[in-house]
Amino acid sequence: MPSKSPVVDIDTSSGNHSAMSLKCHKAPKIWRRSSHTSPTNFWKAPSSSEDHFWSAYEATRPNYASSNFLETIYDYHDEKDASFSIAHDVGCGSGVGAFALAQRFSHVVASDNNTSSLHSAQRFLSSKYPPERISFNHCKGEDIASYHAKNSADLIAAPESIVLMDSRAALSSFAKVLKPGGTLAIWMYGRPHFSEVAYKERCQDIFDRIADLSFRKVLTNLNAETEASWKKTASEMASFLDYLDFGKPNENWQNVKRMKWNSRSAKLGFFGPGACDFEFEPMSNIRQGEALIEIEDGEMWGRNWNISGVREYIDYSFPGMKDLVHGDSKIEELLGELGEAMGGKNASRSYTWPIALVLASKV
């Protein structure tokens, strides 16, 4: 198994390096619709296939509860002696984030801009929790302050969704809804990376080519507006969320903590430059005093798969991808090559994920 590198906490305010230390009331049920739907909302499955897509999608994705990832967030929140009453899962998709949050918070609000995704989340979460524990809101992340009381939330989580928003508007909206001292937790992960030294270089190269060929089918013949949206999303992911700007210290946010897993060995993105005709333009808005933490951990969210698992990941890496890649001779050729590089069709290889997590406290 891969060995873990030391954890380093870099405090930009002092230059010191130290080891990282990684601990009711009900909201009313809400179901509201936003009157605005973004024309560049490209991450959407047809309603008729939404449940099937999300089920297959989640089966190939990491488990947030593993590797103490959520505990990192809860420990940060608990350090302030904050309440665990109300949390939001913004951009909830199928509801797996809300499901995890509801294990610690008394009430969770799950919101999404896609009606069909929100319906999938409602069906899933309603089978796990009673109605008083979960409420739902159809709205953009940038608009949650229009639907929820000021200073009402203890924690807002935006898992795998912030790059689909206008981050400046979203952060402003989040700041209004959070209580003073409340926690904002934003995270993104990219495509998986092989972690075993004997296999990672060769296997990852082939896998990345498959991913790029697959996404090229999505990113071809785009109109200018949609291409600009994809470029924004890809560039923001390439920055490992460094583009997020929390403004002047203690204006709206404090104690900003930026954490990155496997940023030195992997790229944070679902595809590389070979998939598109635009260049990535990552940027950084890290400010003096923010904590920067980089962790190389080949076991983070670790899982194993064989070549069938790789195929399933590719098929459900994006809504409609399975139909797009079906029968593509070059992709099939590369999948065969990858299967051999992995040790044969029944061989199971370990993989991990690049992750960016940004934590901040409302002033």
UniProtKB/TrEMBL annotation:
InterPro entries (UniProt xref): Diverse_substrate_MTase (IPR051052), Methyltransf_25 (IPR041698), SAM-dependent_MTases_sf (IPR029063)
Keywords: Methyltransferase, Transferase
GO molecular function: methyltransferase activity
Highest taxon of source: Eukaryota
Keyword Transferase: yes
Record's keyword annotation contains Hydrolase: no
PANTHER family to which the protein is assigned, alphabetical: METHYLTRANSF_11 DOMAIN-CONTAINING PROTEIN (PTHR44942), METHYLTRANSFERASE TYPE 11 DOMAIN-CONTAINING PROTEIN (PTHR44942:SF4)
The name this protein goes by in its record: Methyltransferase domain-containing protein
Source organism per UniProt: Hymenoscyphus fraxineus
